[in-house]
Amino acid sequence: MNNRENMNKPYYVVLTGSKNNAGDFLIKHRAFKLFKELRSDREIIDLNAWEAFDKNALEIVNNARALILLGGPALQKNMYPGIYPLVQDLKTISVPITMMGVGWKSLSGDWSDTRTYDLSSTTLNLLERVEADKLLVSVRDYHTLNVLQSHGLTNGIMTGCPATYDLNFIGSNLTEKANFNKVAFSLGVSFLYSKALDDQMKKAVISTKASFPKAKFEVVFHHGTTEGFLKTPSAKKDHLHGHKKFIEWLNANNIDYVDISGSAENLINYYEQCDLHIGYRVHAHIFMNSISKPSVLIAEDGRGKALKDVFGGAILNAFDSVGKGILSKIFRRLKIFETFSVSPNLVTELEDVVRYEVDKGFPRIAPARSVIDSNFGVMSDYIKNLP
Fold this sequence. Notes:
It is built from 13 helices and 14 strands. The chain has 387 residues and is an alpha/beta fold. It has 2 domains: 4-165 and 373-384, Rossmann fold (3-Layer(aba) Sandwich); 182-371, 3-Layer(aba) Sandwich (Rossmann fold). The longest helix has 17 residues, at 22-38.
């Protein structure tokens, strides 16, 4: 809901970042369902996170009970004003500000990086304002929590990503099937700037397809694969080019694919029909676990690596190490030097993990359900304690 005149209850203003990536839409979709179920006394006004407040938007914000910055890897060096432009003077926002399910952004994903995570002075100003407003701050993983604590911010709690929670499945058990009729392999983004990871991904696709010869097998794109992708904010031509090249490879190898970008419904409707997910997309892994279905994640950055500590499950690291610093970033952007150290054993290990989980009754995957249920209690407390 965006029209303030239609509000007949007090409301929250929620800043959301969904543009094209299906996972971002899922975060918003699930968060709004949680508000509906747990805070039916509040309405929601949804504003684009990347747009600065004009006079009208600021008035809407200042008549809310709280301003909530929702989800995504928004805790970055230039979070404010880079991710959230908000307003020039934070003092003009008169209502309390908090965050919900926000995470850090780290390629390496090493815990040691949480201790020295660089935040700009303006970003620290925003976080100090959030701290001063004294509301709980929901973060999606313990790595993000330690980033806040390393900067002296004490009001964070680890709730997990809002996308993790489907109220219809809280307290359920993992769905086990004797046969997998449909297997999905989600495509990551790391292959766009690493030949080593591009090669790994292709080998993993071929291996997984061969492991389930009787199943319908599809490679899943969470970002757009057509020219329409370029119409979304911040879309990059080289990303679209990379997707098209990968599609050419899939076609040459007679491998089916599907594009589920652009909405939460696309993601939900697709993965609900799958019996097993394997691949690189964090929110495919989160969604499958949320509906008590098996998933194996290949972690290609700090989001996936941090997820290991949130609810466990079967997660493998896509690479052993990656170059850090400005030169490595330039090399990756220009694709002139390989900065990832990738194990040649990853695909074999993936095969072994999948086979072991299926044969032994999902010893790593099944317990994730109870951890998600436990984390849901923390998320519920966060939402219920909002003003």
